[in-house]
Amino acid sequence: MHPVSWSARICGIALLLFHLPALAAGEAYAPFGIPLDFVLFGATLLGVALFHRHTLQVALAGLAVITAYKLEVTGFPEGAGLAGLGLHLEHEAVGLVNLVGLLLGFAVLARHFEDSGVPDRLPRFLPDGWKGAFTLLAMIFVLSSFLDNIAAALIGGTVAASVYERKVHIGFLAAIVGAANAGGAGSVVGDTTTTMMWIAGVSPAELVRAFVPSAVALVIFGVPAALQQAGLATIRRQFAPHARIDWVRVAIVAFILLSAILTNVVANSRFQGLSDRFPFLGVAVWMALLLSAPVRPPEWKLLPEALKGTLFLISLVTAASMMPVEKLPPASWETALGLGFVSAAFDNIPLTALALAQGGYDWAMLAYAVGFGGSMIWFGSSAGVALSNLFPEARSVGAWLRHGWHVAVAYIGGFLALLFMLGWRAGS
């Protein structure tokens, strides 16, 4: 048995033994005034942060423990026992199916874009010196606005590894993740958290405001990160100058994205009642994928690995939906600012799910906070975890904080810019 597995089991057993008296009595327990639901949820997120190689197992185990506790002790928002669980899952089903469809669909979509040849042409537009490094970050920012932030970070990391011959500064790696997360914060197709808000009924136009703090943050962290990279290595000019663009694949990417956007607009404007009962968005993405498959076959072999990541996220989102949100701090700009720092240590997906269930947030401000805030630590966002697979040296919290200090400064600067320029706009 792997030692990490034993560590996870010991932690879980210790947690259950500590709370056994209350559980045996069938009473809700609140250590230090915190509902046990949140303690179990926090323990799950801590397990995800500590045991990176077993995140799916930790998430599934956490969901199982939380579900058992809700079944036996507190019940669900829709009722107690198995009947309450069934009603709760029925209530969450459409959102979860939409999320599964989008996550798997975007994994295939990202590979279409990578195979289009567009990433191979990007280095041709990079000037020399620190301006070239900053331009690369700006490109990642733009890519993430219409492509998943994980894909944007991976494309940016791949380009950086190529043009700098793998001599990439850790501060610049942090900036790549920051650019990917910042660019996705204002787009409903650029980040899983914004996609979740979109599915929940938040208008794409409302989230566009998040580009204001994201752009400010890009300048704040981008310049020092570019200077760090320029001081370490210069741009290599022997890249593939004759790389050709597959415009058919580019058209397929545009077709899939437009299908998703138009479907969401029509469903929420004309069939709002039905959109709560049928996963129009996820189905639209997959219909577009299947219709375009005869023209350029997708790489279906990506789906098994993508499914593991999807199950991990779905487990956390489902667990988050069971939390007693009426006991969360009231929605405010101070809470949103704090959630950004929390997202640096814990996954931003469940934080977003909790905020959506509670309501009342400025969704653009929250999208920026939980989207970009996770960039402050390498495992604080999916983009950071993905990029660390290309650059294992990034898997050091100390090095990330020491060399990527500008990301934390940029988070605060961007947040304050949004607050003072556009103010707090509470949503539903």
Give a written overview of the molecule:
By secondary structure, the chain is mainly α. The protein has 2 domains: 3-74, no CATH class; 82-421, no CATH class. Helices cover 71% and strands 0% of the residues. It is built from 22 helices and no strands. It has helices at 3-18, 20-24, 36-50, 55-74, 81-115, 118-121, 129-146, 149-163, 170-184, 192-199, 204-207, 211-232, 247-270, 272-275, 280-292, 303-321, 333-343, 348-358, 363-373, 382-390, 397-403, 405-421. Helix 7 (129-146) packs antiparallel against helix 8, helix 8 (149-163) runs parallel beside helix 20 (382-390) and helix 10 (192-199) runs parallel beside helix 18 (348-358). The radius of gyration is 22 Å and the shape is globular. The termini are far apart. The model is unreliable at 1-8 and 10-26 (pLDDT under 50).
Instruction: Please give the domain count.
Output: 2
User: Fraction of residues in helices?
Assistant: over 70%
The number of distinct helices, counting runs of at least 4 residues, comes to 22
User: Could you tell me the mean pLDDT?
Assistant: 81
- Round the Cα radius of gyration to an integer and report it: 22 Å
Largest sheet: none
Number of strands: 0
Shape: globular
Q: Look at the helices and sheets and give the structural class.
A: mainly alpha
Pattern of helices and strands: HHHHHHHHHHHHHHHHHHHHHH
Keywords: Antiport, Ion transport, Membrane, Signal, Sodium, Sodium transport, Transmembrane, Transmembrane helix, Transport
InterPro entries: Cit_transptr-like_dom, NhaD-like
Subcellular location: Membrane
GO molecular function: antiporter activity
